[in-house]
Amino acid sequence: MLIIRLQRTGKKHEPHFRIVAADSRRHVSKNSIKVLGYFNPRTKQLKYDEKAILELLGFGAKVSNRVARLLENKIKHKTLKPINHPEKKAKKIKTKETKTEKSATEETIAKEKETTSVEIKDTEIPDGAPLPTLTL
Q1: What pTM value is reported for the model?
Q2: Fewer CB in 10 Å around end: N or C, the chain?
Q3: Residues facing residue 83 across a β-bridge
Q4: Checking phi first, is residue 121 left (phi over 0); if not, alpha (psi -120 to 50) or beta?
Q5: pLDDT, tens digit, for every residue of 25-51?
């Protein structure tokens, strides 16, 4: 499947990105099919080939979330929208719920420990009698 995404170029601490069309199964830094533009995040400079992007979208190319956000207000196309991942949101919600559930169970255990107490009565042991042993 064809995907339009960013490919990092530039030096350390000076990122520049190319907007490229590439096969989605290939690594990001591997050969791309076509360079469609570039983006400089420091100066927010964005330059792209609108005709080429619209042509690829017409062929059914997908767009990465970052590229979709960059081009959202500049190019009008029905498939040019950031992809929301409901699975990731559901996982975040579940982890928050489990954390609150864990804290609630810890609170109940602490309350039970406070309320449960063992009374030890003083008893006299006759001389010569063996001491009682506790087994757990």
Answers
A1: 0.57
A2: C
A3: none
A4: beta
A5: 777 767 778 889 999 989 989 898 888
CA distances from 66 to 63, 81, 128 (A): 8, 10, 84
pLDDT digits (tens, 9 = 90+) for 38-85: 999 899 898 988 888 888 888 888 888 888 888 877 777 767 666 666
The residue range of the domain holding 61 is: 2-71
- Is residue 85 assigned to a domain? no
- CATH for 61: 3.30.1320.10
Query: Is residue 126 included in any domain, yes or no?
Result: no
Q: How would you write the chain as a 3-class SS string?
A: CEEEEEEEEEECCEEEEEEEEEECCCCCCCCCCEEEEEEECCCCEEEECHHHHHHHHHCCCEECHHHHHHHCCCCCCCCCCCCCCHHHHHHHHHHHHHHHHHHHHHHHHHHHHHHCCCCCCCCCCCCCCCCCCCCC
